[in-house]
Amino acid sequence: MNSPPPTQAKRPLNVLQKAANRLVSVRLKNEIEYKGKMSNVDPYMNVILTDAEEFENGSKRANYGKVVIRGNNVLYVKIEDRL
Amino acid sequence: MNSPPPTQAKRPLNVLQKAANRLVSVRLKNEIEYKGKMSNVDPYMNVILTDAEEFENGSKRANYGKVVIRGNNVLYVKIEDRL
Amino acid sequence: MNSPPPTQAKRPLNVLQKAANRLVSVRLKNEIEYKGKMSNVDPYMNVILTDAEEFENGSKRANYGKVVIRGNNVLYVKIEDRL
Amino acid sequence: MNSPPPTQAKRPLNVLQKAANRLVSVRLKNEIEYKGKMSNVDPYMNVILTDAEEFENGSKRANYGKVVIRGNNVLYVKIEDRL
Amino acid sequence: MNSPPPTQAKRPLNVLQKAANRLVSVRLKNEIEYKGKMSNVDPYMNVILTDAEEFENGSKRANYGKVVIRGNNVLYVKIEDRL
Amino acid sequence: MNSPPPTQAKRPLNVLQKAANRLVSVRLKNEIEYKGKMSNVDPYMNVILTDAEEFENGSKRANYGKVVIRGNNVLYVKIEDRL
Amino acid sequence: MNSPPPTQAKRPLNVLQKAANRLVSVRLKNEIEYKGKMSNVDPYMNVILTDAEEFENGSKRANYGKVVIRGNNVLYVKIEDRL
Question: Which residue out of D23, D75, D76, D78 would a mutagenesis test of the C interface target, given it has the greatest number of C Cβ atoms within 10 Å?
């Protein structure tokens, strides 16, 4: 929805960048959740997930080899301990 | 909804650009899904699909020779293994 | 919702521009569809249609001599083979 | 929702500008429609209507001597043949 | 939702500015309406009303000595003949 | 949703700034209302309230020692006579 | 939804920045609430929470070791007295 925060203050985005190749859960505004390896993310929170699973109300709905999620749909990115 | 991320961090968009001419599934916020060859895509995720099919709740609803989807409606782009 | 993509990557928009004077179907987010000759389109996907017809759930609802659709409402522009 | 398209491509907006003082119908996203003389319009599609009538589901609901409609609510502007 | 239109084309906004200190009705997207003296307005359509009344479905709901309405909620500003 | 209006026209925002340390009521788009001392406000209408109360449909729901409300949720800020 | 306010007026954002490492409650537009330590926040209100808990209608729904919430979903950030 808007331009990314200026450089001096983008620490939440830096934390995300450092989590590249970690296992993450991405919940979208429509309450659907994607779990997979976050190959990459940009300041708009566009996210690439590989080997991803889609969950709705906790039950798995689909698998994705590689998916690019548009950042404006993202509610949060949870960085998982595993992997 | 906003200007594309700055150059140094747009890797998810680069991955999309490299998937040009691949078979993709584009799901929109309204839950409708389009499958077809992604002739092109831009940083706003405006997508051109050719020979596309429209699906709603898993059943095919229509065919499209060539369709330009406005990026702000996109939930995700799934890059298919086939093609 | 935002500024148009930068010049080097606006190919989906170029494809639209080249379709000027073609017959198109423009579906809006509210699921209403307009068919007519696309006299012109801009990078924000504002569209001018002439001799347009409005469809809701597949049935014709109205005729338009000339209508300017605001781009942010556009879901997709389908370029028709006819005309 | 965003900055207006750059000058070289704003032809739909030019067409609107040229329709100043014409009779128009402005439909909003909430499906309410305003008919009146379009005294002026800007690139964001903010519209001034004079001697306007408001319609909901085809029935007249109110009269307006002079009303300024905020552009982001606009679905389309239909340029009427009359006047 | 976006930056204000550039100077050369902001005539609807100029008309609003000239209506400062006039009696206006401001209808919001949520259908609630405010009537009062428009002390001031800016290009984003942020509006200051003084001695304002709030109406919902035509019945008065509250009084406001001074209220600042955020522009992005505005559907239209109707300039009243009175005052 | 967008950049703040340019300096020469931001009088509604100036009025808000001058109301710092006044008692205000902030109504959000979701119809919930917050009353408290407005310690500060910025041009995007991000608001800091101290000693705030939350109301839903007129009944108090919670107390807040210090809360920062994100501006894009704001419907209006009413400047109270008291305090 | 937009660029952050200019430097001279961003005091609400400064207050948030100073609350880093404090315990906060972040309520989102979808009414879900997250409580945890705010490791960091940026001008867009992207927030990193650690050791966070998710609440819906007052009952705890989940735990999060580390989560990055996208700012445009934020309704408010309440700074807690504890911690």
Answer: D76
- Cβ–Cβ gap D4/C44 under 8 Å: yes
Any A CB within 8 A of F73 CB: no
CA distance G11 to A17: 27
Asked if G1 reaches chain E (Cβ–Cβ under 8 Å), the answer is yes
CATH topology of domain D19-79: SH3 type barrels. (2.30.30)
What does pTM read for this prediction?
Answer: 0.88
Task: List CB contacts of F7: < 8 A, sequence separation 6 or more.
Answer: none
CA distances to D6, D39, E10, F9 from E7, rounded to whole Å, are: 14, 17, 6, 12
- Longest distance between any two alpha carbons in chain C, whole Å: 40
CB distance from B9 to chain D under 8 Å? Answer: no
The CATH architecture assigned to A11-79 reads Roll (2.30)
**pLDDT tens across E19-72, in order?**
999 999 999 999 999 999 999 999 999 999 999 999 999 899 999 999 999 999
Nearest chain G Cα distance for residue E22, angstroms: 30
Q: Which CATH class is domain G21-79?
A: mainly beta
Please report residues of D whose CB lies closer than 8 A to that of E31: 30
**What interface predicted TM-score (ipTM) does this complex get?**
0.87
Domain E18-79, CATH 2.30.30.100 — does that match?
yes
